[in-house]
What we know:
- The chain is about 75% helix and about 0% strand.
- By secondary structure, it is mostly helical.
- The chain has 2 domains: about 10-55, Arc Repressor Mutant, subunit A (Orthogonal Bundle), CATH 1.10.10; about 60-185, Tetracycline Repressor, domain 2 (Orthogonal Bundle), CATH 1.10.357.10.
- The chain is globular, with a radius of gyration of 19 Å.
Amino acid sequence: MAEVRKRKPRADAQKNRELLLEAAKEILGRGGPNASLEAVARRAGVGIGTLYRHFPTREELFMAVFSRELDQLIVTAEDLVERDAPLEAIRSWLHANVDLVETKRGMLGAMSLVMTEDLKQGYTERSNLVLAAVDRLLDKGRNVGEIREGVSAEDLMQTLYAICYARQPGPDWRENVLRILDIFVDGLKK
């Protein structure tokens, strides 16, 4: 029996997918579960049919946006482990994570409405990869004596989300969150 190989997506199809994900991040982040998919397609500069070819359901679009953001946080953590001093790497990573929280905040209602078992499994798998990447950042800091013992990736994530969600959305939200995160990171010093 002949093996069927999956073709690589055409360059224009891949470009459209990326445009849709960027547009969806913005539109869904602002509009949550009531965000218009037509607005996403318009923002991306494609027709609604193109959106549905890439993402047949609203759920798939939400998960693709969220998964892409989580994947970027993993890549960012891995880059920072290699490039920056541990404490600054953690600070930079937490700052980058604030972008995800901004996107996620608008999408939380949407995600809770569409979360199927498959989506939960995908989210859990990616979340575990994020925690592993953060653990590598922390391990590097502990190994060089820059970060105190006893701090886990879960501690960082819980603190990040507590700070982000304790602040009311508004024009100074990001600035206030980053300032408090910086104070927290300074407290990680050994």
